[in-house]
Records
---
Amino acid sequence: MTKLGGKIRWAIMISAFILLVYGGRFFTLTNNIALPVFNCPYNLDAVIEGSCLYITEWSDYLTSSNILADLGKLFLMYGATAIGILLFGKLWCGYVCPFGLIQEVLYKIRNFFGLRTITLTQKHKDYLKVIKYGLLVMFVVGLGFCEICPVRFVIPPLNGIATRIEVGIISSILVLGIALFSERFFCRICPLGAFIGLFHKITPWRIKKNCTSCTSCGICYEVCPMDIKEIYTEREKEDVTDSDCIFCNKCIENCPEKEALSLSFGPHKIYKSSRKKYYKNNL
Amino acid sequence: MDIRFNKRKERFDRNFKRVSNKTLEVLKENDLEYHMGYFYSCLENLFVHQSLDSFSGKPIIGTFCAMVPDELILACGGQPVKLCGGNYIAQIAGDEKAPRDSCPVVKSTVGSFEMKLLPVYEECQLAIVPTSCDGKKKMAELIAKYVPTVLLHIPALKDEEKFNDITGMFYGLIEEIEKRTGQKLTKSSLKKAIKLTTSINKEVYILNNYKKMTPSVISGSHAMAVVNAYQYADREVYLDEIKKLNKHLKGKLKQKEFIKKSPKRILMTGSPMVFPNLKMPLILEELGAIVVADETCAGDRMLADPINYRENSLDAMVKGIAMKSILPCSCPTFAYNNDRLFRLKQMVADFDVDGIVYNVLRGCLPYDFEVRNVEKLSEELGIPVIRVETDYNTEDTEQIKIRLEAFTEMLRMK
């Protein structure tokens, strides 16, 4: 278990994508659990549903009259989500989320053609933070986030399920368009990610930094799709996990210094940076 | 007047060769079958035979310090050559042109230009001077009389937020280089250049790993000469040769042909040590210690950090180069330079260091300022440090030898 990054992450992401989006065509689970990823429930073929709908429309599910009859089902849905969030935190974003994969593929396409990227300034980032928490409130209170959700007009059509033309289609075109030019743009404003991020302090998965071996070359900050600066400026603390971190592990893959950055589960360091890995990834 | 100048130049030339040759002789004498022929010939060609054969006719672009990115020059079809002077004779030649208290690097560079001591100084099309220390800044003004000079602005603070502006400056530099070499920089040529330097960087890293071993298979001064030769070599040939060297060292490791059994391991840091001024490491090795780690800017620092670019675009590559040139650089000319202390701390652990030798060239203030910080660090780590102030002059060799002998003796007693 020393190489969890790079190819293994892509393998997990692609298989999760196939399973989550097209899985229902091959087999069905009788008891449906829900995972904290953006996998639209309007996609009827999903073998495992995303819990986004159940979080945003909790009032429909938790206050319905036959709540006792559905107790088992509700427990599976909300229980699996809660355990998933507490145990894996934002690892869902970097490893499982199907919409995350779509964005990364877009990024790869743009990179292939060598198009220019948009560099976001600090001002943009501040605005995006406001939008993110605004969407989070909308999402948790249940003000019909699904109506403007960009995922709804991306994932179901990918599986050949037509959705009604609504306002949301504009947001999905907008988000995908920006994501083409700015890596994982939606993850910056994703309300589900922000929701999981609220619990980031108690998850056992951490990004750790050895401040002595760090040369502050800034590569981690440069490759970070979320532009987390602390990982580069930190010079004292060992734990550099940020609530925005989506665990894409790009910083660890690209860090040239010996064990300067590592992904750890509790006290165990699972994926460490090293010069050897750096040359493997970059030469 | 002309005759007098010519006579003087002849004398300087003769002595210049003598000094360069002496260092090479000592290196060759202590060579334990390292198979370093190519690296010696690189240095010999340039400094003793005074020929430009190793550059195969490419336009020569002079650089200074560790901050000027060679990749941009290589991508424009030029040959980067470091012009920082290390020769005592050139220092004497530069004495009149530069102020008395300026450092020997500046003096010997100016002297080399003034007396035309090496053909590279005459042939070079452009000199790129980073605004690192005050000496280098004012030196740019002095050498502008002899060669077209361009300043590369290095900020005094490492501020990553302003990096987009800094990247713009590197584009300006590219334009200047393109004008001199007559070849346009393209995405593919830059990519190729970055790949070349990253490959060299990797080989130097492997070479450093041999130095980390106890017992070691290569002595520090020889490794230093190998890295020094990088600045004066055709980069593609250099890559092949250093690969061969590493292969050879691997063979030596298998046959257990180690140098000395249990020498005291020294970390060399401080002012730049440019060939032929390898005085300090050679003295240390004569005294039975070995220089395992080298944190000087003409040595390992120059090749310590790799370039990373995030995307497949020219913008990203230039930004990656700009970041590599400035952010991890531990030059004391940056206002806050904690990075250097962290790096030294890591090196002490990595290379299993017994003592630190801090070389201060006379007049090199930024390094002298940081002695205090390094002393504090060494106290914290329990590793002794000695500050040695000297210049390119060899007259003080015996005094330095006595001090370093006492130092190594103390390390042995510890």
Note: The longest strand of chain B covers residues 355-361.
---
Amino acid sequence: MKRLSLFNVVSLTLGFTFLYLPIVLLVIYSFNAGRSVAVWGGWSTKWYGSVFENQQLLDAAWITLKVGVLSASVATILGTMAAIALSRHGRFHGRTLFSAMVYAPLVMPEVITGLSLLLLFVALNIDRGFWTIVLSHITFTMCFVAVVVQSRLSSFDRSIEEAALDLGCTPFMTFFRITLPIILPAVISAWMLAFTLSLDDLVIASFTTGPGATTLPMKIYSDVRLGVKPEINAICSLMVAVVTIAVIIASVLTKHQEVERERAERLAANAP
Amino acid sequence: MAKPLQTQNRRWIVTAIPYLWMVIFFLVPFFIVLKISFSNSEIAQPPYSPVFDLIVDGWDETLDKLASLTTDNYLRLIQDSIYSSSYLSSLWIAGSSTVMMLFIAYPIAYGMARAPKSWRPTLVMMVILPFWTSFLIRVYAWIAILSEEGLLNSALTWLGVIDEPIQILSTNMAVYIGILYSYLPFMVLPLYSNLEKMDDSLIEAAKDLGCTQIGAFWRVTFPLSLPGVIAGCFLVFIPAVGEFVIPDLLGGSDTIMIGKTMWEEFFNNRDWPAASGVAIALLIILMIPIMIFQTNEARQQEAGR
């Protein structure tokens, strides 16, 4: 029987304090009435008020959200296709190159991805702006989608798919009636991952943007360079809140689905 | 046998679409960077020459333009000490923070793996959750803590540890803290997933055979967790080498890292060919660790099967 020693308890406590303290302090100080980031001047929500009056900030948030939803959705479709190709299509011509292209962007420094995409858009003479950010975000997030979906595809029983094919399903129908429902939790969490990666990205968006398309991280970055402002604390706290709620909802949903699936599998196993 | 053949024909579309996408948006851009790294810097739009256009120029002029490609950018990389020192300091900062990270992350992952089974999903979730919040925000949070009138200095002064505020922000120290903080989950998770699978009876056997608790750890647990250690180290080291946001926001003017140098070359000096040269050289440096990492992963997958 494993028991937590004092050493384990201390290292877990210190580790999680280190992980959470900065974010907690950021949120607390977003309610600071004073302008200082270190001196407490009483509770206030005025910085949240000024966030919603700052049109530039709101515009940037709206663009970021649009880029995130669009790119995550396309990346989920492309990434899922890539995952199917890698885990179901066996050996095809150029598979090594394909898997290298899918895995390489995961560890590629963002400055290189950003620069190379920008140079592509310049070479193709494409006007830079909203759509070039979307294209770039699709490209780097679809690789993360492919990895998440592929790990789910490789861990489930392929005989169910084969059974469906034997019973006369077309591969197309098999995917939508058998495979997709099983891998759906992974696809949803892959979408979430792609979405947050897109919301988060500063470097690639800075390279590939053009006039008029400023995303929220770009706006925050240029404000931070001018100095720490309580207003930035407020917008950051709002983003933390949105992500935390989304992650909790997603984990509850996947848990629920897993319980349902296990129940269905048990029923199927007990069926006469 | 008409049907399988037909499905075989349609199946290739599923591969072809993402394949084509990655060729256009990943492979082709890479070759463009390579080409521009051999170009000359110009004050023009686009800020480099030559610009190839086979249709307008015809063969002869294209050949002339080919001849005007230079290796000057690479010569500068070797000769100008700003580049070599930023490569070296990037590798040094990334390498030493990876080692420090191992010392911080191992006890956490070990504690998680020894926690009661019912706690473990929550603990994993708690490690991942900060990772979902914006990288920029997490780095930004440290500015308020580390700055001269920041929370850390106030706390230390209040405790009487220091008399005067010490400068932490805008030093390499702040860059280390930023890297350790931002990449912690990348080290903890591979270590945890390795340690969690470990068979307890091995440790019991070691103890029965006369090992002390600490001896059993160093002789059994640690060697068995090496694949997790390797995976974690590379997941931290590789992105840390090319890091831009952390040295830019937390570091000072004497913090030079290659990602920052490239950014400045591109945005401040508008020297696209030099930036491309820096990028290609960075890729070459990272090629070896990336290949070691992928071999390690492949071996892990083989073993898992």
Note: Residues 79-304 of chain B form a domain with the MetI-like fold fold (CATH 1.10.3720.10).
---
Amino acid sequence: MIALENVVKSYPNGVGAINGISLHIKRGEFVFVVGDSGSGKSTLIKLLLKELEPTEGRIRVNGVNLSRMKKRMIPKYRRKIGCVFQDFRLLKDRNVYENVAFAQRVIVTPTKEIKKNVPDMLSLVGLAEKYKSYPRQLSGGEQQRVALARALVNSPDILLADEPTGNLDPKTSREIMKLLEEINARGTTVLVVTHDQDIVNTLKKRVIRMQKGIIVGDERESGYIG
Amino acid sequence: MFSLASTATMAACIFMFGIFFCIVENFQHFVREVEEGVAITVLFEQGTSEEEIQEIGDRISLRDEVRQVVFVSAKVAWESYKDIYFKEAPELADGFVEDNPLANSANLEIYMNDVATQQDLVDYISSMEHVRKINRSDVVADMLTGFNRLVSYVSVAIIGLLLAVSVFLISNTIAIGISVRKEEIAIMRLIGAKNSFIKAPFLIEGAVIGVVGAAIPLAILYYLYNRMILYIAMKFGILTNVLNFIQVNELFRTLVPVGLALGVGIGFFGSIFTAQRHLKV
């Protein structure tokens, strides 16, 4: 599903964010990517979203070589990848329903389908009753659930989560992780970038450890000692 | 808020354009009227028959720059002369009843579409057989041509300047709009919105600013122009004999589509360029 071969990413100022990594993630896997700040975790997410181009190496997602992808094909590619971030990135002037529906409108889904899909997705994340609320009226955990619903409403093959529990308390973090597990159980490949030791240690999933832009560990069902 | 300011500035620009358009169109209308009265008089050699003169007139009238050719026979020329110079003592002219002193003055009066082409026409007529002399008004022709050219240059310069200002303002508004909605645009990109989907609202915004910014000043100008013509007709009746203004409906038949097209065009293309520059995948 995701394959990186000798990927290097250096910024124009010469700083190397990723210094040659190779990695394979199978369809339906749940993977944690852990590491300190500056280890290259977020750069990895940006490369997978094709927000950044690798300086060297090859990235293949769903069998497609990202380096060879034409610019006009990028939107279509991103529709198959859901993503959530630490800061939720919700539209503050729209309510919960509109935030989720927005993802469907962007890909020009018929209104009839939007009216069916959005409530379904809000039920999945446990926010069906709060569909009229605005982000400012929601807790951090609820906002992250909305972001998850938005990321999943277009049925992506892969879900990328960049520090999804970074702004949440431990209890809410566990709820969000439980939700991610459920999503994974439905067949979506999930890649979570985090440095939350508790979460990683509790879930017992594959853990890829990064340090200074290289992979220093890749273990199945391992814990995380920061 | 920014859209409002932009619409107001666009309205001011189109208003200025409209005023200028009215002045230029009316001026050119006056010039055309004066031009229509300017004619070349062609005189012929002794012994040229009236049939020959009329035949030459027919040939001249085939030329593009010629609007009208009037044949003035010797008899008509004398009658006209007599009316002017023997007005006080018509009996003195009676002595010439049998002997027309202007027997060789049968001529052609040629009216042109554009006085600027006078020299070409004079050159052509000079080369024709039987032509003795050509009387023309170089001063009037040169003055009108020069004035016309000056007005055209000034109008192009001012309109160009106004267009540049409008494009700059629209571009600024759209750029501000893009920066205000930066977060929304970033989310759209992550979700997989196509470039056209992201740009569309800004292009529509630009076009709407253009339409509204053009419609308001056009309506105001329509009202003001109408009032001005009526006011001049009432207060300065004598002027209306000299300056014949274009009727409001006739003028706005051109100004409305031009003004609207200009507004929409500036709005649309101003936003396309800005969106192109600021919105890259």
Note: Strands of chain B lie at 39-44, 66-72, 107-112, 131-135.
